[in-house]
């Protein structure tokens, strides 16, 4: 189900599994199995787990994860789990497992994605493992929901990058995208269907053309973006987006207050999904919180061109927490 390259996961292992009966891609750096930890891998009592944004394609985070793994001196495993159905499974797999047991209704919806991540932890991560949860965009909302629904989760720290945790439809990008995601998304599927038959090389060239304006484009973004030529993947991503616009409204202040000492918020200074006013509002409501505003001009989709820079910042933020373990 997966292919490894490099030694001991230093170059990453990609796996396709079923989680809640949905095709799921997992990308791993470092230790690959946390249920069997040797003395040499004793530092693996901490797992860095990335919950992606939308589209939740783990390939976008490959450079970020590799940089993070290296900057942490290869001490801790760094994993990412895709959003359910945000991948192109191998020919031996379908998007949904052929089973009579329905583990979860609407696994591709927002609530389903939260439960999908909880199920992944249940089946693949022992309960005694301490977690550094790293969320990006809607992944931050998912993390807050995970912490709310499972207060006993062993969370050492949650890092919420460019967090879309409130008023998504009211944001500048939300106002633009809500009609598309909620009413017009089916019209997108037809051109994607025809484009899906193009050779991979042409798809990659089209992606490069779209992203040509980025001065420091991360090459791993190319194959990740080619995944979006899959109708099933795009349909699942846009369906999730439609629910985000409707359901992500009020900020979950009780959960934030309860876990404030465990959370780092990082807002963009020019983020059209969570504008600076959202940063100012949460900073006012939680003056004691670790709530930061980007001063480097990093875009919401940081994985396209700033993965190493964000990994370096994140390593500095967490070093103190890791030294006291």
Structural account:
The protein is of the alpha/beta class and 325 residues long. Helices cover 39% and strands 16% of the residues. The protein has helices at 62-71, 110-124, 138-149, 172-195, 200-210, 221-226, 231-247, 253-258, 276-285, 307-323, and strands at residues 2-4, 13-19, 22-29, 46-51, 78-81, 130-136, 155-161, 263-267, 290-293. Strands 1-2-3-5-4-6-7-8-9 form a nine-stranded mixed beta sheet, sandwiched between helices. α4 (172-195) packs antiparallel against α7 (231-247). It starts with a strand and ends with a helix. Mean pLDDT is 93; it is low at 1-7.
What key attributes describe this structure?
single chain; 325 residues; alpha/beta; nine-stranded mixed sheet; 10 helices; globular; disordered N terminus
Q: What's the mean pLDDT score? A: 93
Beta-strand percent range = 15-25%
Helix content: 25-40%
Derived from helix and strand composition plus strand pairing, the structural class reads alpha/beta
Poorly predicted regions are 1-7
The tally of strands reads: 9
The main sheet orders its strands as: 1-2-3-5-4-6-7-8-9
- Sketch the topology as an H/E string, one letter per element: EEEEHEHEHEHHHHHEHEH
Inertia-based shape: globular
Main sheet?
Answer: 9 strands, mixed
Total of DSSP H or I helical runs spanning 4+ residues: 10
Distance from first to last alpha carbon? 34 Å
């Amino acid at each position: 189900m997966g292919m490894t390259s490099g030694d001991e996961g230093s170059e990453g292992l990609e796996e396709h599994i079923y989680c809640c009966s949905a095709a799921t891609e997992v990308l791993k750096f470092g230790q690959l199995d946390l249920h069997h930890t040797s003395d040499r891998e004793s530092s693996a009592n901490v797992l860095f787990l990335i919950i992606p944004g939308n589209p939740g394609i783990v390939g976008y985070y490959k450079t970020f994860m590799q940089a993070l793994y290296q900057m942490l001196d290869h001490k801790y495993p760094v994993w990412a789990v895709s959003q359910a159905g945000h991948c192109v499974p191998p020919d031996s797999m379908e998007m949904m497992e052929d089973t009579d047991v329905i583990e979860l209704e609407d696994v591709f919806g927002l609530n389903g994605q939260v439960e999908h991540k909880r199920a992944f932890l249940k089946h693949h991560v022992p309960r005694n493992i301490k977690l550094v949860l790293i969320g990006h965009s809607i992944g931050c909302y998912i993390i807050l929901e995970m912490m709310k629904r499972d207060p006993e989760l062993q969370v050492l720290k949650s890092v919420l990058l460019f967090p879309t945790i409130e008023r998504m439809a009211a944001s500048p990008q939300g106002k633009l995208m809500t009609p598309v995601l909620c009413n017009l998304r089916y019209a997108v599927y037809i051109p994607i269907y025809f484009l899906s038959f193009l050779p991979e090389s042409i798809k990659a060239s089209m992606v490069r053309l779209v992203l040509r304006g980025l001065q420091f484009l991360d090459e791993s973004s190319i194959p990740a973006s080619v995944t979006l030529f899959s109708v099933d993947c795009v349909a699942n991503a846009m369906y999730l987006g439609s629910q985000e616009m409707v359901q992500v409204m009020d900020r979950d202040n009780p959960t934030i207050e309860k876990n404030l000492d465990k959370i780092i918020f990082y807002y963009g200074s020019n983020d059209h999904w969570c504008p600076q006013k959202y940063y100012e509002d949460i900073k006012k409501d939680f003056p004691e919180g670790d709530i930061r505003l980007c001063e480097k001009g990093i875009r919401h989709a940081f994985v396209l061109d700033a993965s190493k820079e964000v990994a370096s910042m994140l390593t500095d933020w967490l070093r103190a927490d890791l030294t006291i373990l």
